[in-house]
Amino acid sequence: MAHKIILDTDPGIDDAMAIFFAFQSPDIELLGLTTVYGNVPVTMAAQNALTLCELAGKNDIPVTKGVGMPWVGEESTYAHFVHGEHGFGHIKPEPPKGELDPRSSAQFIVDMARKYPGEITLVAIGPLGNLALALRLEPELPKLVKGVSIMGGAAFVPGNVTPVAEANIWNDAHAAEIVFAADWDLVMFGLDVTNDVPFAPTFVDVLAEKNPTLGGFVQESAQFYMDFYSQNREDRVCFFHDAFPIAHLRHPELFELTEGHVRVGTGTLDRGQTVVAPKGTTPSPLWNDANTIKVATKVDHSRLEKLFIDTYAL
After folding, report:
1. What are the pLDDT digits (tens) for 178-188?
2. Which of 174, 241, 248, 261 is catalytic?
3. Is 205 a catalytic residue?
4. DSSP H helices in the chain
5. Are the beta carbons of 70 and 38 closer than 8 angstroms?
6. Which pLDDT band holds residue 286 (cuts at 50, 70, 90)?
């Protein structure tokens, strides 16, 4: 049976790779792309999502525009130094022909959850403002969705924006605090697992060979991305963080998970920190009263890479 998902995204090079992976997956039913600021401003994120749909011939998939600012604080400075001026490396896409769904991303999430109660997994691969707002619009949302899978955070490893914080959570820490505290089945795919799986440059070459249109786009856009990730390294590498939650939905046996109580930092120094206390490791009620989540800590790299390649070849 196919997994119904809503993909909350800020495209983004690795977002593009993940979106195409979802498009190509026969056991994923993508109900919509909800966009958020993060790698790029939200207006660009929405246009980029439309562009990816058109490139893949998926013009029937709704795309919505969501929040453009953090829950608290000033507008983001974005990650153009990682993803390029337009979000796709050196590629400057033509303006998409399609139009956005008129609903906000948060309203779309609520509407779909009400339409398919208990069936949808929310897959969030950007900052979490849309999910936080959806929780405000519909406090019963955790009872209406099947689960939540998040690409973000760093439970037992250093961050990539600050010594303690990963970019998606740091970008909207107060929204993340709301989302992580909600009473739903949440699995976090953070730097613990995504930064542990570098991909060689030949990986995108194989994607392009298997799928010249979608894989070719990933191959071309990822060159800029690889330039960033290969700084101060002897080898040239790339990371595709955002596809991990979708891979887990399809093949959970590839991953090892740790269950624990989570707190999200919102202070000046700990902004965006995701601290996880594994269950049974502390007597402190400050932690044992916190919400419980699952954190991906290991993945079978070779089988994951094969899954990506085989799916692009479909």
Report:
1. 999 999 999 99
2. 241
3. no
4. 13-24, 42-55, 80-83, 105-115, 129-137, 141-144, 167-171, 173-181, 191-194, 201-210, 214-229, 244-250, 285-288, 301-312
5. no
6. confident
Helix 13-24, helix 42-55: angle, nearest 10 = 40
In tens, the pLDDT along 4-29 reads: 999 999 999 999 999 999 999 999 99
Question: Looking at the DSSP assignment, which residues form a beta bridge with residue 187?
Answer: 149, 294
Task: Report CA 166 to chain centroid distance, whole Å.
Answer: 12
β-bridge mates for residue 111, sequence order? none
CA distances from 94 to 63, 89, 129, 203 (A): 17, 14, 28, 26
- Measured from the Cβ of residue 132, the count of other Cβ atoms closer than 10 Å reads 22
Take residue 82 and report the two structure tokens written for it. Answer: 């990682």
Q: Is the distance from CB of 4 to CB of 31 less than 8 angstroms?
A: yes
Q: Are 239 and 228 in contact (CB under 8 A)?
A: no
Whole-angstrom distance, CA of residue 126 vs CA of residue 169: 8
Q: What is the CA 55 to chain-centroid distance, rounded?
A: 20
Segment holding 98, helix H or strand E: none
Phi, psi of 131 (to 5 degrees): -70, -40
Q: Which two tokens stand for residue 64?
A: 């919505």
Annotation marks residue 10 as catalytic: yes
Q: For residue 94, with 0-12 CB atoms within 10 Å meaning exposed, 13-18 middle and 19 or more buried, which class applies?
A: exposed
What DSSP element (H or E) covers 126?
none
Asked if 19 and 33 touch (Cβ cutoff 8 Å), the reply is yes
Distance CA 96, CA 106 (A): 23
Which amino acid, residue 313?
A: A
**Catalytic entry in 8, 10, 15, 172:** 10
Helices of type H across 154-263 = 167-171, 173-181, 191-194, 201-210, 214-229, 244-250
Encoded amino acid at 228, one letter: F
Q: Residues 103, 21, 302, CA angle at the centre, nearest 5°?
A: 145
Cα–Cα dist 242/194, whole Å: 8
